[in-house]
Write a structure and sequence with these properties.
The complex is a heterodimer of chains A (335) and B (439).
Chain A: H1 14-21, H2 24-32, H3 35-69, H4 91-96, H5 102-135, H6 143-155, H7 158-168, H8 175-183, H9 198-223, H10 228-236, H11 241-270, H12 273-279, H13 290-300, H14 304-334
Helix pairs in contact in A: 5-9, 5-11, 6-9, 7-12, 9-11, 13-14
Chain B: H1 8-18, H2 20-25, E1 42-48, H3 54-72, E2 75-81, H4 83-96, E3 102-106, H5 110-116, H6 124-129, H7 138-141, E4 154-159, E5 161-166, H8 167-172, H9 182-192, E6 198-201, H10 207-220, H11 237-251, H12 267-273, E7 277-283, H13 286-291, E8 299-302, E9 319-320, E10 322-328, H14 335-345, H15 348-358, H16 365-368, H17 376-387, E11 389-390, H18 398-416, H19 423-435
Parallel strand pairs in B: 1-2, 1-3, 6-7, 9-11
Antiparallel strand pairs in B: 3-10, 4-10, 5-7, 5-8
The chains are: A mainly alpha (335), B alpha/beta (439).
Chain lengths: 335, 439
């Protein structure tokens, strides 16, 4: 999915939420004003209704069905009448979290790989994005061109760019081995990038390459709102560049970064296109991220019940992490 | 293409939910004995990709479909589906009940799809509508579903594995003829391997190719991956030895380029065609090699080696019964038209035309006699199918088996690139695959 299509949620300011909660008296007045007023208030909701219906249809209903399937023993035997597949109770969940069994063990391994992958890829994307945005903040000749070039990976269709990376990583004819081994002679023999442990490096590389322009874009936008006077005042007080970044830039970017890191985390954790296009069916174990793992478990071995149970657990995990993250970062800001 | 997130499960669930109505309201057509004329109706046909491209398939099939429409008045809506998508599409159609009328399937999927109940069982009554079961070659009928049940599909194209070898490279290395035992193949392979040229090319990153080869090697060690009752037995010594022998063609014998461990886009065929490898084990590679510019005079075709040197049954099998089957979806609203179409496609005349185009062998006895199938390559393949090929396990868990063991072998090749693979490693991988077999 093109990341561009996901709107960046605006950070909800806690103070504003409180103000809204306190406005109950105002609403009570409105209710007393009769049907004309009601109709006027009702109109926006009426206009929202189609969107709400589609939201239900596209997101909520499938999610509920997915949760239901996770309690069913839905295998190939029941595909034609999947509604009548027998209930499995918590059976699917017991199998996927039984870390002594092969399925649970594989899921746990995949989960650890995904966490490591996400932590590294998000940190690097954020670091590159931030550094590039700060460096490109002061105007210089060719800045516009440079910014445009930086954004190219973000503008390319995911499939096209990842398949190009897959070609570049090839053992026999890949560009990367050609440069590292044949031209520069850095490695004594060609390297396998898409097999074994190196596949993790390949996956992180492509993911960072795809996501850092987004970090760059968002931080760049955030930088525009920092008043120049702050930097001028700091410079007069004798602060160096490093101090300016640490004391002015970073604190001012906090609300932007809060959302940016969360969005990057969710995208990276859930990314399916990158590993699927890079490795095809059956990712190498060191790069067997959870989205691929669930796909293999459900669609290739036709065990939709277990696949759904894994999805539900993943959903719960992401909910807890996102909620905890928002709570933690907002509280720190208020303190 | 799958949706790019694990929430894909939910998306599919949505698709399923939206079609509940269709699922419950559609009635099975298998009981229908309507003999009303099917002329003027339209049926949908999902063809598998048999040519060098999907466009090529259209070129081959469209004139034949036009012929069928002219004969019967039934129109056929053709969709050619690539191999990576075909099973997913059939699975989705099975769940929704909104499938095509007629579909091509890989013959190894027969038992798995049979277990879903989505395909029309070929009872003797249904068989008689298309000219009887006896018109097919019996080895091909052996790969159409679980034993003791009416077949879920009928054979359409047959192929088998053979060893293709580069005559010029063999001559240069002073090798008189193709190897008949694995010891010969390894010895020849070592003579042929030098510089950037390797003795043998393998599609070692491909799950289907790996599972076929692993199955044959295990058979040669007396293990068939499933007990007679259908329970998985992947860790029996024969299976471990077979898989180990296969992956160590790269790991120990070093007659396969380590780079082959990444191949899953038929790169091994182009390596063979371009002379980068001297041997190739492939199913009916002739048409494919021609597309790569290799003429029939440049390569020889022989049966794949066996341990004993003499192909036969039991531990001397040298190929799986490979091929394409044709099935009718149970939910078809036009059984009579669908059966007429299957009869047409499996008629000797059409079988001759289509198999000629695709370089396969017709599984219909009357068509097999045609002189067009007496080329050196097809003679070898025909003989393999008749005497030394064995069907892949006809059990409901077959597609799971292909996926899990195929992936295990792919991972073992990732180990083999850096040296010999131990029996213990093989056993671990197979054991993990076996434990993941469910349902």
């Amino acid at each position: 999915m093109a990341p561009a299509s996901t709107p960046t949620p605006a950070p909800v300011h806690p103070a504003r939420t409180r103000a809204r909660a306190g406005g109950g008296g105002h609403r009570a007045t409105a209710r007393r004003r009769g049907p004309g007023r009601l109709r006027r208030i009702g109109l926006p909701y009426l206009l929202l209704l189609p969107a709400l219906l589609f939201e239900l249809l596209v997101h909520l209903v499938p999610m509920v069905v997915g949760v239901l399937i996770s309690f069913k023993a839905l295998t190939q035997l029941y595909l034609t009448q999947w509604v009548h597949a027998p209930w499995a109770g918590l059976g699917n969940y017991r199998i996927v979290v039984d870390f002594n069994g092969a399925i649970g063990q594989a899921l746990l391994h995949s989960f650890v790989v995904t966490c490591a992958f996400t932590a590294i890829a998000v940190s690097l994307s954020w670091l590159f994005g931030c550094a590039a945005a700060i460096l490109a903040q002061d105007s210089f000749r060719g800045r516009g061109l440079l910014r445009a070039i930086f954004l190219t990976p973000y503008a390319l269709p995911a499939y096209t760019s990842v398949i190009t990376w897959a070609f570049m990583f090839q053992y026999n004819n890949g560009l990367i081995n050609y440069v590292l081994h044949n031209e520069l002679g850095i490695t004594s023999s060609p390297t396998f990038w898409l097999l074994g442990d190196n596949s993790f490096i390949a996956l992180v590389t492509v993911s960072v390459w795809r996501n850092w322009p987004f970090a760059f874009l968002v931080v760049m936008a955030g930088l525009q709102s920092i008043p120049r006077e702050l930097y001028e005042a700091a410079a007069i007080d004798g602060a160096g560049v490093r101090q300016q970044i640490r004391l002015i830039t970073m604190p001012s970017l906090r609300p932007v970064n809060q959302v940016l890191v969360l969005v990057l985390f969710l995208w990276t954790f859930n990314d399916f296109t990158t590993p699927y296009v890079l490795f095809g069916n059956g990712a190498p174990p060191p790069a067997d991220v959870i989205s691929m793992h669930i796909y293999d478990a459900s669609f290739l071995t036709w065990n939709f019940g277990e696949g759904s149970a894994m999805s539900v657990l993943l959903l719960l995990f992401l909910l807890v992490v996102s909620g905890g993250y928002l709570l933690f970062t907002s509280r720190r800001r208020n303190a | 293409m799958p949706r790019p997130s694990p929430i894909a499960m939910f998306a599919i669930a949505a698709a399923l939910a939206a079609t509940v109505a269709g699922c419950s309201s559609s009635t099975s057509a298998s009981t229908s004995t309507s003999t009303s004329t099917a002329a003027g109706s339209t049926i949908t046909y999902w063809a598998s990709d048999q040519g060098s491209s999907i466009a090529d398939d259209h070129t081959v099939l469209n004139p034949e479909l036009a012929k069928f429409t002219k004969q019967t008045g039934i129109k056929v809506k053709l969709e050619v589906i690539g191999w990576p998508d075909l099973l997913n599409r059939i699975t989705a159609a099975t769940a929704s009940g909104q499938g095509p009328d007629v579909v091509n399937i890989g013959n190894t999927w027969s038992a798995s799809l049979q277990a879903t109940g989505a395909l029309l069982p070929w009872s003797s009554q249904n068989f008689s509508a298309i000219g009887g079961e006896s018109k097919f070659v019996s080895s091909a009928v052996g790969s159409t579903g679980a034993a003791g049940k009416p077949p879920a599909a009928v054979p359409l194209y047959s192929v088998a594995y053979a060893l293709y070898y580069n005559k010029a490279l063999f001559q240069q290395a002073g090798i008189a003829g193709p190897p008949v035992t694995w010891a010969d193949l390894i010895a020849d392979g070592k003579k042929l391997t030098h510089g950037s040229v390797y003795g043998l090319a393998l599609e070692a990153g491909s799950i289907p190719e790996n599972i076929h080869n692993a199955f044959i090697f295990a058979q040669q060690h007396g293990c068939s991956f499933f007990s007679p009752s259908g329970a998985p037995t992947y860790t029996l010594p024969g299976c471990v030895q077979g898989v180990q022998q296969f992956v160590n063609l790269m790991g120990t014998d070093k007659i396969v380029s380590p780079g082959d461990a990444e191949y899953d886009q038929n790169q091994s065929v182009s390596d063979f065609a371009s002379g980068k490898a001297a041997m190739l084990m492939w199913q009916a590679a002739g048409a494919n090699l021609k597309a790569h510019g290799m003429s029939t005079s440049q390569y020889g075709v022989a049966p794949v080696p066996v341990q004993s040197g003499v192909p036969g049954q039991g531990t001397s099998v040298d190929s799986m019964v490979a091929g394409i089957n044709m099935a009718i979806f149970k939910d078809t609203h036009n059984l009579a038209a669908a059966e007429k179409f299957v009869q047409f496609m499996t008629s000797p005349a059409e079988q001759t035309i289509l198999s000629k185009e695709y370089g396969s062998i017709p599984p219909v006895s009357a068509a097999q006699q045609n002189a067009a199938f007496a080329t050196p390559e097809l003679t070898v393949l025909k003989n393999v199918l008749a005497t030394s090929a064995v069907a892949m396990p006809q059990v409901a868990g077959e597609s799971q088996f292909e996926q899990l063991v195929g992936t295990a072998v792919k991972n073992l090749f990732a180990d083999a690139v850096s040296g010999p693979v131990s029996a213990q490693t093989v056993e671990q991988q197979l054991s993990s695959a076996q434990q993941q077999m469910t349902g």
